[in-house]
Amino acid sequence: MIIKEIVENKKLIWTAFACSLVFLFIAFKFFISELPDKNSIAKISGILKDEIKIERKGRGKKSLLIKLKNYPEIDFMIGSIALDETYSQELINENRVGDSINLFIENKEFRRKIVKTEKITFPENILHPQIVDIVEIDNGKSNYLFLKDYRKEHQRNNYLGAGLFGVLSLLMFFLGIKVLRHGKNMKF
Which CATH number describes the domain made up of 38-153? Predict the structure, then answer.
């Protein structure tokens, strides 16, 4: 009985330490993720193919979807993080099918999904190869999402993600230590 408990404790210890490392890696990825700036974005001008729509996804998440005639296979999107910083109602009300609009996207997305000079990386090539995130948008007269606002919201999200996964990493590490100490105190 005691040997079975020791084996289960070892599994729990290794699982806790492994989870701690995975969570630490995820926190580090959030922390070092680069946000676009004026030098790392490309402008795409196009004609609206469909009405601009707000799509509702699970758990209250929303995103804004834009389709252009020049790129019918691509879904240009403002995700739920940046949507709060977007003048979405004005964007929908002031722009109709056939109107011209300017979208700014990251250079890497431009190379991978628009001009297709680079390969789309995993897991994006499976999950959503046709979705391109918008970092700034205007129609020549009005700006609806500014790059600085996009950056501010994503920076806040990155800090929250790094903090959350950092705390989870520490909790799993301390759980592993606690179980390790408990295992040493067991008597045979």
Answer: 2.40.50.140
